[in-house]
Design goal:
The chain is of the alpha+beta class. Among the domains are: 71 residues, OB fold (Dihydrolipoamide Acetyltransferase, E2P); 33 residues. Helices cover 51% and strands 17% of the residues. The chain is built from three helices and five strands, in the order H-H-E-E-E-E-E-H. Strands 3-2-1-4-5 form a five-stranded antiparallel β-sheet. It is rod-shaped.
């Protein structure tokens, strides 16, 4: 079908037509509004979420500092897995905080380390052990993913509301057609002459 005919067929609700009803116009405006809200709202939600996530990751990179720590216990190769990290296990380490005090805490380290091994751990601005911050590349990917998820999260309610409105319009049209058929149907007898 040529594209001009297809466009005319798709936009029939906008043209003047004796068969067009008020519900058809409402449906056309509903579809347009749903797509406009999704396009604008999804873009805004995605950009705001991505920007906020990027700022949070940058703040983590600025706050968290690597420090050298000493493993206090042996970490066997066959130790039970913790936290879903393959090849890493929880153990106790000792490190010097930024204020010079000696601290101990638990963190994940590679398996097979002996007591006294030196490892690099990450601490936050308060001297507490924390996870390593995401690299700028991984943070950008994560921010983009969160932005896309925010846009997709907006799509569900927006398209759901549009579907509910269209469903109600369809029910109303069917009811109107039924009423009109009740008026016209009796005049259509089974006469064959």
């Amino acid at each position: 079908m040529p594209s001009g005919k297809y466009a005319k067929k798709r936009l029939w609700r906008w043209r003047s037509n004796p068969l067009r009803r008020r519900d058809d116009i409402v449906e056309a405006w509903t579809v347009l509004a749903v797509w406009a809200v999704f396009a604008v709202g999804g873009s805004v939600a995605g950009l705001v979420t991505a920007h906020a996530a990027d700022e949070a990751f940058a703040a983590q990179r600025a706050e968290r500092q690597p420090v050298r720590a000493v493993v206090l216990n042996d970490v066997p190769l066959n130790a039970p897995a913790t936290g879903g990290a393959y090849g890493r296990r929880m153990t106790t380490v000792r490190w010097a905080a930024s204020d010079g005090s000696t601290r101990t805490g638990r963190t994940q380290v590679d398996t097979g380390l002996k007591a006294g091994s030196r490892v690099t751990v990450w601490q936050d601005g308060h001297g507490r052990l924390t996870a390593a911050p995401l690299s700028s590349t991984k943070a950008a990917i994560e921010s983009d993913f969160l932005g896309a998820a925010a846009a997709a999260g907006l799509a569900g309610p927006v398209f759901g509301a549009g579907a509910v409105i269209r469903w109600q319009l369809d029910r109303r049209r069917v009811d109107e057609w039924g009423k009109e058929w009740d008026q016209v149907g009796p005049h259509w007898g089974h006469k064959t002459s």
